Structure formats: C-alpha cells, structure tokens
Amino acid sequence: MRCLVLVLVAGLDLDERPVTKVINLLKDMQAQLIAEKKSDEGMYEKMACWCKNNGEGKGTAVEIAVKRIEQLENSIKALSSKASGLETSLEKLASEMAADQEALDSATAMRTKDREEFEETEQDLIVSIEGLKNALTVLEKQLSFLQVPSGESFLSVKHTVRRILNKGDDILAEILDAPSRSKLTEFVQGQTSMGSTDEIIGILQQMQENFEKNLKETQDSEATAISEYKALKEAKEAEIAAGEQQTKDKSALLGKTREELAAAKEDFEDTSDAMSADQAFLADLKKRCAKADSEWAERSKTRAAEIQAVTETITILNDDEAHDTFARTLGTFVQVRQRTKVTWHDLKAEALIQALYTAKQHVQLDSFKEVTNSINEMITDLKTEAKDEVDHKAYCQKSFQENEMEQMAVTNEIKDLDTKISDLASAIETAADEIAALKASLADADVEQMRASQNRVEENQEFQAVVADQRATQVVLNKAIDRMSDFYGNKAQLLQVSQEPGAAAPPPPAEMKEYKNNAGAGPVMTMLNNILTDAKELEAEAIKSEQDAQAAYEAFVARTNQMKAEAQKALANKSEEKARFESDKVAAETDKQDATDRSEALSKNKAELHKQCDFVLDNFTVRQEARAAEIESMQGALAALRTA
After folding, report:
1. 342 in a domain, yes or no?
2. How far, in Å, CA of 274 to CA of 126, rounded?
3. Do 130 and 245 sit in the same domain of this protein?
C-alpha cells in the first residue's frame, strides 16, 4: 500500500519552524559540550592529582627502598662475616675437642697397657716373694735342726730359685751381682756343700728384701699413675664438656645468625623487587601522565573550537535579520514526502494465502503422509522426553547424593572447627592470664625495686647523718678533751716557778689553802674518752652497715633485673604465642565461615534440586507408564493408517 503525505509549513508557529528546532538542537549540543567539558575537567583533575600523589609517593618509596637496601647490604655483610666467624670458631672447637678426645683415648689406652703390665709385674713379684719365703723357711729349718731337708722340699727350693734365675729380667739384674748369681746357680745344680747354706740364705733374704722393695715401689708408681690419669681424664673431660657447651651455644648463635641472614636476604630481595616495581611504575606513570597531558591539551583545544563553532552558529541563527529571512523564505515552502507503508495485516494475509496453497498441494499428493509424519514426530518427541526424564532422574539422584555427602563433610568440618576455635579461645585466655600474671610480676618487681631504691636513699641519708653527727661529736669531744688536758694533764708544770740558782727567794705570799684539782675531773675525762670511743665505734659500725646495705641492695637489684629480664623474655614468648593462637583462631573462624557459607550454598542447592526434581521423582513411574501407553496407542494408530 502506498500513500502520499503533504506537509505545509507556511502557517507554522515560530517555535515549530525547523530553524528553531535546529537552534534548540544546537543549544542542546552546546549544553552537552559544556557538560562534557566539565566532566573531562573533573577527570583530568583526578588524573593530575593521581599523577602528582603517586609520583611523589612512589618517589619517596624508591628513596626509602634505596636506603633500606643499603642498610640491608651492610646487615648482610655483617651477618655473613659473623656467620663465617662462628663457623671458623666451631671448626676450631671441633678440632680442639677431637684433639682432647684423642689425647684422652691415648692416655686411656696407655693406662690400660700400664695397668696390665703392673698387674703382671705385681703378680710375678708376689709369686717370687712367696717362693723366696717358702725357700727360706725350708733352709732355715735345715740350719735349726742340723738336718738335711726332705727331697721334695729341697727340690721345691731349687725349683723356686731356678725359676727366679731363669726370669732374667731387669729387676733381677739390679739386685743380684755376678758372684751371688754364680752361688745360686751352683746351689740349683747341687754343687754347693751343706756348709754354704748360710750364704745361700743370706742371698735369698737380700733378694726377698729387694723384691719387696720393688713391689712397694711398683705399687706406689701405679697409685701415682692412677692419680695422674684421673686428673688428666677429669681435665680433658672438663675441656671436652666446655667445648661441647661452647659448640652448643655457638651453634645456636650460628643458627640464629643464619636465620637473620636469610631474613635479611629475603628482605633485600623483596625490597629490591618492590623498588624495581616502583621504578617501573614511575616510568609508566610519567609516560601515562605525559600522554594524558598531551591528550588533554589537544582535547581542550578541539572542544573549545567546537563550542565556539556551535556558539557562533547559534548567534548567527538567532540574529534578528536571520529570523526575518527565515520567515520570508519558509512562508511559501511546501515539503512533500512520499513513503510506502506495508502493514502487519498485509504480511499476515499473504503468509496465510501461501500456507493454504501449500497445504492444498500436499493434500492432493498424499492424504495421510502429513498425519503419519506428525504422529512419528510425536512418538519421537515422547521417546526423547522419556529418555530426558530418565536422565533427569539419574541426575537428580546423583546430585542429591553428592549434596548429602558434601553437606555431611561440611558439617563435620564445622564441628572440628568449632572444637579448634574453642581450644584456641581457651589457649588465648590462658595465655592472656599468664601474660597478665607476668605483667603483674613485672609491675610488682618495679614497685619493689622502687621501694628498695627509696629505702636505700633513706638509709644512705640516715647513714650520712649518723656519720656526720658522730664525726661532729668526735670533733667536739676532742676539743673538750684537749681543753681539759691543757689544764689537768699539765697541772704540775703550771705550778712550778722558775728561779735562778742562788738567787734570793722573794718573800712568801700570804699562805693559801692547798690547791686541789676538782674531784670530778678524772671521771669527766674518762667519760669523755669513753664517749669518744663509742662515737668512733658507732661511726665504724655505721660505715660497715652502710657497706653491707649497699651490697645487699646491689645484689637485690641484680636479682630483680635478672628476674625482670627473664619475665620480659617469657612475656615476649607468651605474647607471640597468644598472637599465634589469635591468628590461628581468626583463620579457623574464617574457615568456619567459609564452611558455613558452603553449607548454606549446599542447602540452597538442595532446595533448588527439590524444585527441579521432586515432581520428576515423585511422578516418574506414572509419567513413564503414561508416556509408554501413549506411544503404544500412537503406534497402533500408525499401523491402522498403513492398512487403511
């Protein structure tokens, strides 16, 4: 359908004229450009502020990083040197302990060897001494009873002497000269007469004495060697123990130094990486901000030109002469627009005609083909729906099972986290109590130390006052004693009158009563001296008490400072432990919140599954049977159509 539309504007109002609309559009453009300008200015100001703040901030950060890197480099060098020194010291200690252990092992081996030799020598000497004693007993009986001993006893004596002679050791060489050896040899060989028995006994007695002397010397030497070995062993074991303790201490210090060195290196790497990132950021920032400045200058220039053009255009169009011109030129102008209009009803009718035409052709060709196809399509759709419903049921059952298993796992996890949080809360509370107790003990120690200091000051002031008083008392007493001594101590000298020999004596004055010293002078002097002695003793006692009090105060301060240091260390450890517990608790609470969120999500998911699945699961058998019956009926219809 086509139609012509004629629009006459000769009689239009001024506000309805096209120029007025153009002017309004231009004004809208002008307002929009100004608004965009303000918006861009705000954005540029934000960008400039960002550039300024971040440039200054990152610049400062780079400066700080440079200083920190320098400090870390120095720390790394110092810690490396310290670790190297400790390693060298540990190697030296290990070498010294190995040498001490080797010396101890060598001394022990030598002591064992000497002990075995001593036991062998001691046993040999004891056997020899006992043999000599038995031999002497036999020979002495011979002399006592003037009879020849029995053959067995005499043979035993010879056997003993022969055994000693056959030893041939250094001890025998020292105590037996050649003639004596020869005599004994003849005795053993039976070449000695009975009259030589006294000489043999004498030789054997001398040998016994020498053997006993050697035995005592050997035993004394063994005792000395045991004592020396014991002292050496104790010294070496003490050195080894000291070395082990030093090794333990230095190993601990080395471990701590290595940890500090590793931390410093890690901090150095982190700081270097951070500085590199900051420097890269600064470079990108300068480039980005320079580009923004350039783009802003060009953008401002372009927008200013655009606004100026729009403004000048509005001015031109709003000019009075222009309005008159528009009125004249637009008064007789007629605009004609031609357009073609096709309605929705026209399209629908055309489609309907085409569909009817197509259906007519199909009916002419095959009356049942379309019906058969429709039934087959319905059967296919029903089978697809049945299969989809089976799949949907399997999906629902699997999803419910998975949801239930996950919910069970999350519930157990929440219970475990609740227990962990409760344990951590209890641990935090215990740590807080212990920290409070440590702080209280430190506060008490400070109070006690302050009181002790105040008491010490007061005691010292009292001591100063006592000493000053005693010394002032002594000065006064000495002056008093001196003054008394001037009179009472030198009274006889004061009463003498000097005269020349042979001079005439002056006439005696009137007689005076005999002068007698005050009877109280002696006791006064004694009392003054006693008081002076007491004052000196009190001064000495005060000085000693002050020294003892000062020593006790210093010992108390040392003990208190040690206790405070230990308490501070324990407080730091407890604070770290409490912080660790709190961190673990926050982590556990976060994990619990995550688990709770997952539990809620699983609950929501289960609810969604119920929405999606309850109908299918509840009606699955009925729907499947109904669908199968429907398919069977359709298949029967198809069979009927084929035989028709």
Report:
1. yes
2. 88
3. yes
Own/partner contacts of 456-463, CB < 8 Å, gap of 24 or more, are 456/549, 456/550, 456/553, 459/546, 459/549, 460/546, 460/550, 463/542, 463/543, 463/545, 463/546, 463/549
What is residue 291's predicted lDDT score, i.e. its pLDDT?
A: 82
CA distance 291 to 294: 5
Neighbours of 577 (CB within 10 A): 16
List CB contacts of 545: < 8 A, sequence separation 6 or more. 463
Structural domain count, the chain: 3
Q: Per the domain annotation, does 38 fall within a domain?
A: yes
Element (H, E) at 198: helix 197-318
- Per-residue model confidence (pLDDT) at position 224: 92
Same domain, 123 and 35: no
89 alpha-carbon distance from chain centroid = 25
Q: Are both 293 and 315 inside the same structural domain?
A: yes
| Separation of CA 413 from chain center | 30
State whether 237 and 129 are in the same domain: yes
Please check whether residues 109 and 240 belong to one and the same domain. yes
CB 376 within 8 A of CB 639: no
What distance in Å separates the CA atoms of residue 446 and residue 567, rounded to the nearest whole number? Answer: 12
Q: Does residue 605 belong to any structural domain of this protein? A: no
Same-domain check for residues 193 and 222 = yes
**What's the domain range around 193?**
102-250
Residues 137 and 228 in one domain: yes
Burial class (CB in 10 A: 0-12, 13-18, 19+), 409: middle
Q: Per residue in 352-399, pLDDT tens?
A: 334 434 444 444 445 567 778 888 888 899 889 889 989 998 999 999
Predicted local distance difference test score (pLDDT) of residue 584:
92
> Which regions of the chain are under pLDDT 70?
1-26, 142-154, 156, 158, 166-177, 181, 188, 190-196, 306, 310, 312, 316-368, 483-525, 528, 644
